[in-house]
Each structure stands twice: as C-alpha cells, then as structure tokens.
Amino acid sequence: MEEMKKYIASVIYKALENNDIKIEEIEEKVETPKDKKNGDFAYPCFNLAKVLRKSPVMIGQELELKITADDKISKVENVNGFLNFYLNSDNITKKTLDNIVNLGENYGKSNEGNGVNIIVEYSSPNIAKPFHLGHFRNTVLGKALYDLYETLGYNVTGINHLGDWGRQFGIIIEGYKRFKDEYNFDENPLDALSDIYVRMNKICKEDEAQMDIARENFKKLEQGDEETTRLWKYFRDVSLKEYNRIYDILGSKFDSYNGEAFYNDKMDEVIQILDKKGVLKDSQGAKVVEVSDNMPPCIVLKSNGSTIYATRDLAAILYRARTYDFTKCIYITATEQILHFKQIFEVAKYLVDEKYQKGLKHVTYGMIRLKTGKMSTREGNVVYINDLIEEAIKKSKDIILAKNPELENIDEVAKKIGVGALIFNYLKSGKNKDIIFDLDDTLRFDGETGPYIQYTYCRTKSILEKVGFDIANLDINSINYSKLSTPQEVELVKQLQKYEDTIKKSAQEYEPSILARYLIEVATLFSRFYNECSVANEEDEKTKQARCVLVYATSVVIKNGLKILGIECPDKM
C-alpha cells in the first residue's frame, strides 16, 4: 500500500508540473477513503489551492484530464476537489497473491529495523503473588509488540522488570514467619504467599506497631541479613517457576529478568550524577529533581534516605543505555503510572545522551475490571490467570465436544482455542480502553473473537483439503488471476494486500489492536467470498485454481497475523 501511495504521488506530481510543490508533501496527503465507493486512494486538492491560486474543484478537474489509466490505475475521478484513484484489480491480485505464495510464513516480514535495538519492558509482576488478570493484559500486549518489531527486523530485547523489592516484602516475610505452618507450600506456594500477604497487610493496617516490624524486616533485607535474604530468594524462585509456566503457555519471550532488586547497587551512581549536575534539591528532608512547571518534582531519595521506584527506574535507564545501546526503550504499564514515567523521562536527560532520552516511550493500557468492580490484591479481590486459563480451556473443550466430538487431539485444540480467545479479547480493543471481563463472550465462535478467526483459518484448510490443493506442486505461472473478478474476490485480495502495511502501522502506533481488527476484517471478507463464490464445486478449472490460491493466501495471512499476536491456529476445530 505504501508503494502505491508513492506511485500515486508521483503521478500527481508529474501532472502538476510545478516545482513549488514537493512530491513528499503530496504523498503525505494521499489517503484511503472510508467509503470504498470513493476509490482505493484519494488526494484532496485543497492544499494546492493557495499555491496554484485556483479552486480545489478546478484543480481536480485539470488533474483528472491529465492523469490517464495504466497498468496500476484503472480510473481517476474528481469529486468536489477530491481526486479518487481506482486501482487495476488484475495487477493488484497477481502481485499480492504471487507475493504471498512465494513468501508463505515469511509474508509480512521485512528488514526495515536491521541494526536497530529496541527494548520492550513488559509483564513485570510483583513476585510472591499469583499472576492475575491485570498482569495478563500487560503480558499479551508486550508480547505482541515484541513480535511486531521482530517481524519488522528489529533487534528486540524483552525485559521482565520484576517487582522484587520494596516494603511489601517486609510484610510477607513477617506473615510467612507467623503463618507458614498453616499452608502447604508444595502444592500452591504463590496462593499461600498471596493469602499470607492479605492477612498480614490487614494486621499492619490496623496496628502501626506491626507495620513497624514489617519495615524493620525490609531494612534487614536491604542490609543483606542472611535469614531475610534467604526467604526473599525463596519467594523469588517459586514465583519465577510459576510465572515461566504461564509464559510458556502464552509464548512470551524475555531476554532478561532483571527486576528492581538488580539495581540496588546501581542507584548511588544516579544520585552522584544528579548531585554533581546540581539538579538534586532538598525538599522537606527529601531529595528531589524539579522536572517542569506542570508536574510535581521527582522524588529520588525519601526523607529517611531510602530510595523509591523512581530511583531504581533511573538506574535502569542508565544501565540499559550502556548495555543495549537502544534506539527505543518501551515501558508497558497501566495508565495509572503516566505521571511517574513523565517524571523519570524528564530526569533521564541528566543521566544519558539525548538520543537515549528521546527513545524512552511509555505505552499505557486501560484497566481490566470485574463486573463487581476493580481488582485489588490487598483486598484479595482478584482473578488469577491460572484459574482463568484452565476455565477457558475447559469451556472450549465443552464447545468442541458439542460441535465435533470425533475431533482428534481435542485437548490440544481446546488449549489453542481457550488461550487464543483470552489473548485476542485483550488485543482487539484499543490498548487504553478499559475492559469489563466476560469469559463467555470471549469464547464465542462467532463475532469479533479469537475463536472466530481461528475457525476461519480451519475453514480455509478444509476447503483446500477437500479439493486436494497442494501449494508445493503449484505452477504459479499457470494461474489466471483474471478469473478473480467478483466484488467479493477483489475486496478480499485488497484486504490481504494491506497486511504488510498493517504490521508497520501497528508497530508505529504501539497498537496491536490494529492488526487484530484487520484480521477480523479478513475473516469477514473471506466469509462473504465463501458464501458467494464456490470453490470445491466450481466447474471451470482455471477459476477453481485461482480461488484455491486466494483461499491459501487467506490462510497464510490469518496464521501469520495470529502468530504475531501470540495465538496458534489449529487445523481443525
């Protein structure tokens, strides 16, 4: 699509014969009309009126007469100052489908990011707590962004910045000492630790003396006390064991698990640099850095001399700039942390070169809410992702058994559908949109759901199997693409052509929902094609062959696109 925008811009530029107008400015204004009746591309002539001293309508009329149809453009129309371009569908069809057939699973990949380092920090759960629904959205969003950039050829580093430090560990340590004998840590250690935390936190909230004991525990941990350090390492180890089991299910990739604790010995340098540059100021006993008139100062040291999240995040920025030489460092967190990241990004200009500071990017996402309200670990009102995955797989299996009880590998298929449904549910909506969770709606096999997209893929496989189509034995030069002339076929091909640009746009806007919604449209257009255009029963062999290629190309795009989103495709369901 980008290639066609450039071509259309060059055609307009040539027809204008005016050196005062740059081709780059024309290309920037070429757009895709929302209404398909207005062509495949449109160029608004309004921005030319001032330069050419003519009305947009007159400019459009003159350009319409000058631009003639060719092998790429079938028709040009001026409508009230908008120049509408209709592409040659035969040319689009051949180029698009040949490209997909030749590239297969590599369709959509590029080397645009060759040599460019990108960090994606995502998931980042607090250890000693089960993986809950809130972490899930962060994880699937980060994984999708990781794969989008990797598909585009960037050198991507996935970092799981674990929440493995802070006062809460003083609370958990104290609770563990008091209540450990009441729990079976061999079966569900994180469930036990979470329950202990909720109990002990409640006690601390009601009795300040108990909170002082918890604070003392954390102070011992900071000082390297042997017993508290041993317990902390145990909490971290059992947490990572469970998290990695879930990450394996979700296909998440991490190159580093360096969490907050990793930066304990790296914060002094941050303080020294800020102090040396004269930006560290006293404020009611605390040490702060003024960031801007619109934001409160960034606290670097509290009045008692202890560090906070900001100090560790600043140390992480300094470390990552030196270690990874990143062009972009993406942080994925809930919208509630917007102020925090605005502050540390501002302070970062005193620590690292401008190119690194400008490469810091905070990607936010909305909250997942239960029908009963907001989740809270402290109050024990959460949905744990392990329970959710198991329930989604079980319900998927029940649906399969009702629809296709003879299906082989039902458990494997149910896992792909259940997990895929959960992932797609959180990626199909704009990342900053709050979601009210509903498992039954997520698992529907029709509508805008993961199972619907997977079912469309299975339908493509079934059609090709029925007609005995084998891509390995296809003579690509024998295909008569002019046979694909119905509106349903043409629209489906045009949608498949947009795949590469969709990946780029999704990455540029940090928005996997663009890809997810694109796949919904692919599935919808394929359904229309399937209902209107016979494949297996088509009598004309040339038409049947061309339609088989179109079916195959659709299967490639769906499978490749879902893979980027972290979703596997079963062959049957």
Which stretches of 5+ consecutive residues score pLDDT under 50? 375-380
The CATH superfamily label of the domain at 444-565 reads Isoleucyl-tRNA Synthetase, Domain 1
- Biggest sheet: strands side by side, in what order? 5-4-9-10
Kindly provide the radius of gyration, computed on alpha-carbon positions and rounded to a whole number of angstroms.
28 Å
Q: Specify the helix fraction band.
A: 40-55%
**Averaging pLDDT over every residue, what do you get?**
91
As an assembly, this protein is: single chain
Tell me the structural class. alpha/beta
Strand content: 5-15%
End-to-end separation in angstroms reads 34 Å
Under the CATH scheme, which class of the domain at 444-565? Answer: Mainly Alpha
CATH topology of the domain at 444-565: Isoleucyl-tRNA Synthetase, Domain 1
- Distinct helical segment count: 22
